[in-house]
Amino acid sequence: MSSGNGPGPDPTEEELAAMDRDELVKLGGKLDGVEIVDYPDPWPVKGTKAEKRAERVVTMWFLLAALAGAAFFVALIWWPWQYEPYTNADGHFWYSLYTPVLGVTLGVSVLALSVGILVYSKKFVPQELAVQQRTDNQGQGSREVDRKTIVAHLADSGERSTIARRSMIKRSAGLGAGVLGLGAVALPVASFIKNPWAEADTKYSLAHTGWQKEFPDEVVYLRRHTGDPGEISLVRPEDLEAGGMETVWPFRESERGDHTALAHALKRSDNPVMLIRLRADDGKKVIKRKGQEDFNYGDYYAYTKICSHVGCPTSLYEQQTNRILCPCHQSQFDALTYAKPIFGPATRALAQLPITVHTDGYLIARHDFIEPIGPGYWERKS
Ligand code: FES
User: Fold this and answer.
1) What is the pLDDT of residues 172-222, one digit of tens each?
2) For this UniProt entry, which segments traverse the membrane (predicted)?
3) Rounded distance, CA 185 to CA 272, Å?
């Protein structure tokens, strides 16, 4: 606003208090050395067909924003989002549309709201043409007179935009912004619409992974992913060379031939485990975590692939240094010291899966992880 060097002396506090908004607007311009060249009313003749048409166009955009926002909200909650295998052609088709539908509805809603605001500004807000001399105000802050005149100016702009008397536009804009806001709130909250304590001891709970046994004697094998969920390739200790690493997923005989269950086990985000075979010399240097001394099978160690920082896959294993690397933020974990973090932002060790070899010679999980995997967890103690 004013540099304080504008033409004429500043009005006194009493004079300021006595001024109405029009006078304050003029005073603001004068103090700032602003010359208003043109300040046309966009609709000098009120109530014309063109004005009403413009009002309807703006309303239409806001209603479209509301409609798309509502569609986003409905899709977010009710669209079939759970994986369906290719064998169920219909189910797979609708499932595969989940993410595109969310993207399109949210995108259309934001776009329509923006276009509505743009069209409104273009059609109804007076396009003032003014010239002002530049000033740096010599480092001084705003004075009372500056503050008052700018508030008056803003209020005047709002009134001249005629928004106050355009209830159709106001309501549709409120509806569009409200529904979009609802979707924005629902997006992060929706993932919590699940009881974390339901089925607490099963592999379906948040506290367990797919490695959790469904009954005490169940055998959960380590399997590799060949690209075909139906092709079961189990892992024997001799399959891995010393210093080698392989990613494995859980497999139970009860799921053999069940394409949906097999595909789900491979897709479930907390299932992947990094199976590492240390070189014999390195195996002698291992420091085990208290209470997990028997989680390994000889030189074979299995750690979750879910980084304890923010959950990226820790998919790199450096054989020479025995370090597990997370490419997201470069955390490094020492495979010789129970995958303890030794570099980067991660502060917790990777959870270790207890493994052994079954009577048939294949590697199996002895039980699920004994702690939640991945990043912060509200009941985590480590
Ligand atoms: S998610 Fe692994 S370092 Fe950040």
Assistant:
1) 888 888 888 887 787 777 766 666 677 778 887 778 899 999 999 999 999
2) none
3) 31
